[in-house]
Each structure stands twice: as structure tokens, then as C-alpha cells.
Specification:
It is globular and about 40 Å long. It has a single domain, classed as 2-Layer Sandwich (Alpha-Beta Plaits). It is α+β, with helices and mostly antiparallel strands. Strands 1, 2, 3, 4, 5 and 8 form a six-stranded antiparallel sheet that branches.
């Protein structure tokens, strides 16, 4: 049976919008089929990055038959195909970053993958697209996404709707 997954995509190198568009398109070749794509948001980098380049971010609800570890391998393949190298460090610029945020109602912690994503509650660029597409979504632990959006730390993060649309029909 297919799992419903929520992915967060971000880009701050090269043609950021083209990178996002191509990332969404390439997911299908990996067995990850987008059902819904959020608007595109522009955000400042999060974390200890020395690089001030702004990110474009979006969220994707998708369906897949892949198990969680196979899904991780699939998204890393898409990132690599778009030029991401994995030696640039945790918060360094990248053409494409894809995070697995949710996988059905699964809670999982392995050395290589934690679901729900361990930092999703701290990132407006993850929560805002999620709430845009599924406003009444409740996390596996029972927390409504709307409640997380009320956190002053989330509200203080700069997230702007970008003047571009990336829809499933633009592939």
C-alpha cells in the first residue's frame, strides 16, 4: 500500500526555481509521485550558515511505495543529480535539499533517518507550506500544525511568498 509523505525542498544556488521544478519532476522517476505542491516561499537561511543567500522553499505531499530508507536514498539521488555534493557541510549553500518531514503517521529513529523530521517544529519554511496545503493537519504526536505556527520563534522567521508558481501542471 502506498504511503503518503511530506517533503520539504529548498534551493539557494543557481537557478533556484528551476532547481525546485526539476527536483519535483525527478521525484517521479524515483517512485515518488507528487499529489500536491505548495506555493514557493523565499526564506533566509536557518542555522549556522556563513552564506547569506536566500532560499526558495516549497512543500510536497507525495505518494510512494518506497519504504522510509529507500525513500531517503531516492531523495538523495535527486539531490545528487541536480549537483548537490555531500561534503559541503550541514548548513552550506546547495542547489537542492530535500528533507523527508513526514511518512504517513510513522515515528522512526535510525542512525540515518528520523521521522517526523527532528527540526520541523523549528522551521517556518516547513510548517507554512504544510499548513497551506493541509491546514488541519495533526502530527503523529497529536500536535496540530496550526498550534506550531503560533510559536513566536516561528512567527519571527522571514518567510515570503515568492512571485512564482510551481504547480504539478508546470512539469
Amino acid at each position: 500500500m502506498a504511503a503518503k509523505v511530506y517533503l520539504s525542498l529548498g534551493s539557494n544556488l543557481g537557478d533556484r526555481l528551476a532547481n525546485l521544478r526539476e527536483g519535483v519532476r525527478r521525484l517521479q522517476a524515483q517512485g515518488v509521485f507528487p499529489l500536491q505542491v505548495s506555493r514557493v516561499y523565499e526564506t533566509v537561511p536557518v542555522g549556522e550558515t556563513p552564506d547569506p543567500r536566500l532560499y526558495l522553499n516549497l512543500g510536497v505531499w507525495a505518494q510512494t511505495e518506497l519504504a522510509p530508507q529507500a525513500l531517503l536514498h531516492a531523495v538523495k539521488s535527486v539531490e545528487a543529480a541536480l549537483g548537490r555534493t555531500f561534503n559541503e557541510g550541514r548548513w552550506m549553500p546547495r542547489p537542492l535539499d530535500i528533507d523527508i518531514i513526514l511518512y504517513d503517521n510513522l515515528t522512526l529513529e535510525t542512525p540515518t533517518l528520523t521521522i517526523p523530521h527532528p527540526r520541523m517544529r523549528e522551521r517556518a519554511f516547513v510548517l507554512i507550506p504544510l499548513a497551506e496545503m493541509t491546514p488541519d493537519y495533526v502530527l503523529p504526536d497529536g500536535t496540530p500544525v496550526k498550534a506550531l505556527l503560533g510559536n513566536p520563534r516561528i512567527q519571527a522567521q522571514e518567510v515570503r511568498v515568492y512571485d512564482a508558481c510551481l504547480s504539478l501542471s508546470s512539469r
